[in-house]
Amino acid sequence: CSRPQKVCLCPFLPVHPLKVSTCLYIIQHPAEESRVLRTVPLLAACLPPDKCKVLIGRRFSEDRYPELATVCRNPNTLILYPGAEATNLEEVALMPSSPSVMIIIDGTWSQAKDIFYKNSLFRLPKQVQLKTSISSQYVIRTQPTNTCLSTLECAAVALSIMEKNKSIQETMLRPLQALCSFQLQHGAQIHHSKEHLLKNGLYDKPMPKNKRKLRRMELLVTNVKI
Description:
The protein contains nine helices and six strands, in the order E-H-H-E-H-E-E-H-E-H-E-H-H-H-H. The chain is α/β, with parallel strands linked by helices. The chain has two domains: 5-185, Alpha/beta knot, CATH 3.40.1280; 192-222, no CATH class. A six-stranded parallel sheet has the order 2-1-5-3-6-4, sandwiched between helices.
């Protein structure tokens, strides 16, 4: 896990990489690479190298990324990005020919949106989303809503659905739970979602002056899907 021995997460990782048929392509925003407490390294440590490929950048052209372009044009590729055009992954997983590749964008919501809409390649695969009500266990980082999940959590839930194996989710979340536990023991605070803070009158930062951002925060309070 490349962490100091005192907070080593290796005992919480699977002894052997998980055997999965699905290959993940993690499209990581450059800002995520410099974060100390990020989840993608833990995700990669749970899977064989050929089943988890991380590409870092903001723009992905067909000329610079021919392998990615081929993947995006493959009819068996999915991209995990919620929205009106997205199909619930559970429905797709029931189809006779199971998809073999999934693309997941790693970054804040605004960073992920920028990557998704400014790269035409990512609108070629079938768009899917997770229909889940579970709350994020990544409690040391603030999420927009209670049900927003980290990249590791998204991958864990998605793989458990696609591989039809619930134990995959439990195994992959174990190092994340340990990471949060270590951080809380060493002075970190639990980060409630913006949704929770706003609804309970605990949001102590200045409200945004930008009308679009202010509207998004109002929608969080009223439970309107954004």
